[in-house]
Amino acid sequence: MKRISHFFGMLLVTGSAVSSAYSQTAETALTQWMEGNFRQAKNTAADAIAADKNNALAYLVQAGGLLYEGNSTAAQTAIEKAIKLSPNNVLFQAELAECYKSQNNMPQAKRQADKALGLLRSPRSGMEYFMRASMENIQSKPDEALADFTKAIEMNPRFVRAYAMRAGLYFDKNQMDLALTDLSKATDINAQYGYPYFLRGWIYHNQQQYDQAIAEYTKNIKYDLRVSDSYFNRAVIYRIQKKTDLAIADYNKVLEFTPKDADVYGNRGNIYYDQQKYDLAMADYNKAIELSPTKANFYVSRGNVYRVKQQMDLAFKDHNKAIELNPKYSYAYQARGEDYYSTKEDEKAMVDFKKAVELDPRSSYGFMYMGFIHHNKQQFNDAIACYTKAIEYNPNNLDAYNNRAAVYDALGNTKQANLDRKKYSDLGGTIAASGTSGKKILYPGSTFDPTVAKAALSRGVATIRGRACSKYDGRRFDAAGAKVILMPVTPYLDEWYKLREKKESKTTWVYMSDEAYKYRIEAVADAEGRFVFEGLKPGKYFVQVIHSFNQLKTAKVYDGSNSYQNGPVMQTTNYYHLQDYTVERSARFEKFVEIEEENENKKITLTSGLIKSCAL
């Protein structure tokens, strides 16, 4: 959040208005004002008034100086004296409109501008064009105002105020090169005129040329009186540059000018939040809310502190309040989504994150948190899409790079994972050295659709009966007590199976998502390895059993020998004993089974090969 000021303090005169009736001193004051020398102009006008209390032009210049200082009430008093002396003078009527504008009384300012424009239909001098342009500006007629400011400059090339006003209009039209040209011209004529530095700083600020912006804001502070906005904006940049002490010092300076500025407390609180000084942040957010209880962003910030402190009821309360105050505030939905995410209410969190990116399609962190949820659900392609969006809208979002790297790992894309980790490191992320077992775990990339699986497992009347056995050393071992699972064949399962067939090895395991694995039916094999799945619908199913057991075996163990002489022959007798031992066995048996008829009774055998004695 940064600020832009439009303090112009309009002073105007027609060719016929400048006459000996106003005195040479008042005319000098007006020239000083035109060239941006407001302090001199105000002092010169005071001298003219001291010499002649009926010098209406001097009151006009005095009003302009007071507007420059931000004292619109005193300025209005001064201009009303001028109007009393000369009720139909367009100069005075126009300046009164500027006073109303400075007081943020735009309805009255527009009515007064209408009156002034009615008095000036055919400008004849540079000042008259300037006057009309200023009133057109109040009436939100930028094209007309731009043309009239240009005419004023043509007729008076040293009209610094006209350059400044026109630069402001170019800025509003996003014609920054033209705005910068006018601002340079203004400072060439008067290097101590402060406002062009502020507007130039604002332009550099928006262009993220932060060092140049700071230099311009600093010059504005040096030469201008109304500099709180420059301190404020400079503090915003210092926070971006992580120069937190300088930022806090500038916010403190703003509070010297405007001690009841809620935005300053809010922004300073954000710095304390960054520094994990949560009590100081909370105090500033409380003050901001006290001063401006209808601003949604302060409630969002305070709610975030409550979340850090694990005071979730208060966090939800503040974030709900923010949404109530501003239903179109994207960050409020993101913050509440983070509340739901931290309390493991992922479905509610996803609703809020989607709303956040709907309201702000460039919400990097909204997309990143959506990626977190897809990632946690092992919906890897969706997670990559969200992390990629987060990076697109904020190339410095290092958490998005780090998490996308983990997803690429899960999909076996080691090259892209390493590129993302390097980017994460380049942006300042810390990756510690680590060791692993050397095993990889891969997942399908697509998102599992539970509705398809749920429909496939709805109740039917078909049955699958089976028996599972292993064969070792010519013997049959029934899968007694083994768990047998049945899963409907979905596009996701098909992808998982093909990936496993292609990638699985001693060093690579292929898993399916936790959610996909939930949609299964389990049976336990009896003492002979028999199992039954009932109530099935026609369709294709995947049946799997892991048969793990210890096989009892017996071995002849050598105990020693005895040798003796039997006549001319030496004889040796070896001694053995039998010893039992176990061998761990584990085998995975799988089969795709298709039920074609509603009442079908399908029989299957799960073995490592042909075992006739294992048949049902």
UniProtKB/TrEMBL annotation:
Annotated organism of origin: Niastella soli
Protein name: Tetratricopeptide repeat protein
This protein's UniProt keywords: Repeat, Signal, TPR repeat
Signal peptide residues on this chain, from the entry's feature table: 1-21
PANTHER family in the cross-refs: TETRATRICOPEPTIDE REPEAT PROTEIN 6, UDP-N-ACETYLGLUCOSAMINE--PEPTIDE N-ACETYLGLUCOSAMINYLTRANSFERASE SPINDLY-RELATED
TPR repeats: 228-261, 262-295, 296-329, 330-363, 364-397
Domain of life assignment: Bacteria
UniProt xrefs under InterPro entries: TPR-like_helical_dom_sf, TPR_rpt, Ycf3
Pfam families: TPR_1 (PF00515), TPR_11 (PF13414), TPR_16 (PF13432), TPR_8 (PF13181)
